Amino acid sequence: MKPTAKPNCLSITWLAEASLASFNAGDKEADNLVSLKKITRQDGQYVYISGQAVRRALRDRLEDMGEPLSLPHVEEGQSSKQVAHTQGKPAEFIDDDLFGFMIARKGQAESATKRTAPVRVSPMMSLTPWQGETDFGANFSKMDVDGKPNLFETEIDGGLYRGTILIELDRIGCDEGYDKPDPPDKRVDRVQKLLKATRDLWLSGRQSRFLGDLTPKIVAAALMTAKVPLFLEAIFIGSDGKLNLNGLAEAVVDRKDIVVSKVFGGTEKYRALLPQECEPVTIGEAFEKMSGWITARLFE
């Protein structure tokens, strides 16, 4: 059964590959140890990049495109470190529109001004357990009393990371924080820029010694009439230790009642692993197809 309702959601899941990286620091366990963020499962610990870090990376890419960001509004007598919110002007700033905000004055939490983010972001999870590896380094800018450099360890990881974003199309450029909706062409432009930011994703922190790549090597996207992160759990490592992508095709078949359009892409290294019924294309072609879905008609 083909969906007849107007599309209101674009969900994108992708895989990034890191040969050796240390993307996102966790809690400080020791003075000379830089740890990774990890979650514990029955078969071990899995490294992840927080949703907050992914959102920050997307914001940075939008700024690279020339988009002004909503910097914290510092009132008289305050420092920027005391302000934990942006300006709350979604019509003016793309990040306030896409990622939301909450402005709560001291003692006035019940009357907070807020916008729930129409762009929902999952943490980027490693698909294989962390192996406990570390890299040793020496900080020559901090010498001990004997004139020797300060030694430290950094936890490192490598492998595939899975990320997902869900875009509530019917809330881009309207709803909370707006007196009236933005015009359709402005809403189209903002989603198009978010797609480009996702394709060019790069985490600026912790890259000086461990340059890593978070851009998609496999991508699956669906335009839908229901807000469902369709492919979020559809990519995994099977019991044979190999990457299993069969769940992508199955997800589309199971939810054909809400899927209006879909696309699957991969780099040359991974494209052949996608099921043939997915009709895989290049990463560039996949994002071009997504871009073609985002027209003014969606926002009229």
Topology summary:
Elements: E1 9-21, E2 33-34, E3 38-41, E4 44-49, H1 51-64, H2 94-99, E5 101-103, E6 113-115, E7 119-121, E8 124-126, E9 134-143, E10 149-155, E11 157-168, H3 184-199, E12 218-224, E13 236-237, E14 243-244, H4 246-254, E15 259-266, H5 268-271, H6 283-293
Parallel strand pairs: 2-10
Antiparallel strand pairs: 1-11, 1-12, 3-4, 4-8, 5-6, 7-11, 8-11, 9-10, 12-15, 13-14
- Rounded mean pLDDT score: 90
How does the overall form come out from the CA principal axes? Answer: globular
Number of separate helices:
6
Rg over C-alpha atoms, rounded to the nearest angstrom? 21 Å
| Structural class estimated from helices and strands | alpha+beta
Helix fraction bin = 10-25%
Q: CA-to-CA gap between the ends?
A: 25 Å
Topology as a string of helices (H) and strands (E): EEEEHHEEEEEEEHEEEHEHH
Low-confidence stretches: none
Number of strands: 15
Strand content: 25-35%
Write up this protein:
This protein has six helices and 15 strands. The protein is an alpha+beta fold. It has one domain (about 10-300). A hairpin with a 5-residue loop joins strand 9 (about 135-145) and strand 10. The longest helix has 16 residues, at about 185-200. The radius of gyration is 21 Å and the shape is globular. About 35% of the residues are buried.
Key descriptive features of the protein:
300 residues; alpha+beta; 6 helices; 15 strands
Provide a quick synopsis of the model:
The protein has 300 residues and is of the alpha+beta class.
